[in-house]
Backbone:
């Protein structure tokens, strides 16, 4: 619990000090639970990726779903990134944060006519289409506006991403994308769609991938299809390689793919492609740049297990409950304390509200601070107010300064929009 220099890499950060901020002092100022993000760590990731992409015509479109806080999106915009969005809400946030519409790609299997209209009116770069019905709808909405939409086919390459089933998206039984056979028919029929210029390919086979093999396999399938299309006279302006790069949630156990190996696979498989390559990383940019700062409410010795009860819960971070995901947990206490084995839990009334089972940690007591690591992606963006727990504060750290980028919800904020049923109407 010593030095207070700025740290770009959370892994090397002194555990009580991050990006120049003393976390105990921060907890006293903004309260707990709170999501903290290191701007330096995010910028380091962006720079590392951009450096690796040097010489390629590439645009990084940050997957806004990973963390859609306006301040985070603004940081991405300032670094020249675009966005991968999946809803009208994400479009609105990205535009509000200053991401130019011309750098936004719209994915997702359930785009509605209203969402498509909004995205066309905003002038987004392209739509990643996931069904023939959606292609027809885009043609219809674009035609009504007398515009031509750029679109890519999201290819489902039937590749197992070797990740958790719930975040696997590239198998033929998954709801995402279409098979190459169907995509071939779309291109053959493309002259009939006068308001949709089908000139791109897209693929995203899953998230938290720690092996390059499935990525290479999927890219090879897409590249083969691009070559076939090019030979048949179709012009492909962009290939979107999706996101999915895994991160380290468990030190010494998870071994993320080195970024140069990942970009090397893109270079190899898409060699000769002279259009634009789009990338949609979310987790890789954000996860390790965030941590959930929480306080011990009490320690409860059950009949069989010892529970460390935190003031954060599954509503603040659902990944352990939803995916049995591991997060490293670091009590901000003296390492000399003896070790204890805990089930680390929150106050929510579900047995599933468990961050870790049987975890060995330095002994904790009420009032101690605990850091749950690598929560910058799919943490706050998946949060809820379940059990009427207001959304936690979010704080951006940057070289010794901090900014609250989401105020902790008050009870009033939490019920905003709710009202007693005292005005009855008929449709
Ligand atoms: C189409 C698409 N692109 C990109 C991403 C981002 O994935 P990740 O956060 O694993 O990089 C996702 C995540 O589900 C996605 O569905």
Residues:
């Amino acid at each position: 619990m010593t030095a207070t220099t700025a740290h770009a890499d959370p892994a090397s950060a002194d555990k009580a000090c991050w990006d120049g901020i003393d976390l105990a002092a921060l907890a006293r100022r903004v309260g707990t639970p709170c999501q903290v993000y290191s701007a330096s760590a995010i910028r380091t990731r962006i720079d590392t990726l951009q450096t690796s992409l040097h010489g390629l015509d590439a645009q990084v479109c940050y997957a806004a779903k990973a963390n859609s806080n306006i301040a985070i999106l603004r940081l991405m915009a300032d670094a020249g990134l675009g966005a991968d969005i999946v809803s009208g809400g994400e479009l609105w946030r990205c535009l509000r944060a200053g991401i130019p519409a011309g750098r936004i790609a719209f994915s997702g299997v359930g785009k509605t006519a209203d969402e498509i209209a909004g995205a066309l009116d905003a002038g987004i770069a392209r739509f990643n289409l996931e069904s023939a019905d959606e292609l027809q709808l885009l043609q219809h909405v674009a035609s009504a506006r007398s515009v031509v939409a750029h679109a890519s086919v999201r290819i489902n390459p039937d590749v197992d991403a070797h990740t958790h089933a719930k975040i696997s998206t590239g198998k033929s039984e998954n709801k995402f994308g279409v098979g190459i056979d169907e995509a071939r028919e779309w291109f053959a029929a493309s002259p009939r769609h006068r308001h949709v210029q089908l000139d791109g390919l897209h693929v995203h086979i899953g998230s938290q991938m720690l092996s390059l093999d499935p990525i290479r396999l999927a890219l090879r399938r897409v590249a083969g299809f691009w070559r076939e299309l090019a030979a048949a006279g179709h012009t492909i302006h962009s290939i979107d390689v999706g996101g999915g790069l895994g991160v380290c949630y468990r030190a010494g156990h998870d071994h993320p793919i080195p970024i140069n190996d990942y970009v090397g696979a893109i270079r190899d498989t898409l060699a000769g492609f002279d259009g634009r390559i789009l990338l949609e990383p979310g987790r890789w940019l954000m996860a390790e740049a965030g941590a959930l700062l929480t306080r011990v409410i009490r320690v409860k010795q059950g009949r069989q297990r010892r529970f460390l009860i935190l003031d954060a819960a599954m509503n603040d971070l659902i990944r352990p409950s939803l995916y049995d995901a591991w997060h490293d947990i670091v009590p901000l206490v003296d390492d000399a304390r003896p070790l204890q084995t805990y089930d680390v839990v929150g106050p929510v009334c579900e047995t599933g509200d468990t961050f870790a089972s049987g975890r060995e940690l330095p002994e904790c007591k009420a009032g101690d601070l605990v850091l749950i690591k690598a929560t910058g992606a799919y943490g706050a963006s998946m949060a809820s107010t379940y059990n009427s727990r207001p959304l936690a504060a979010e704080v951006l750290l940057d070289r010794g300064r901090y900014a609250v980028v989401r105020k902790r919800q008050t009870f009033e904020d939490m019920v905003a929009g709710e009202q007693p049923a005292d005005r009855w109407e008929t449709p």
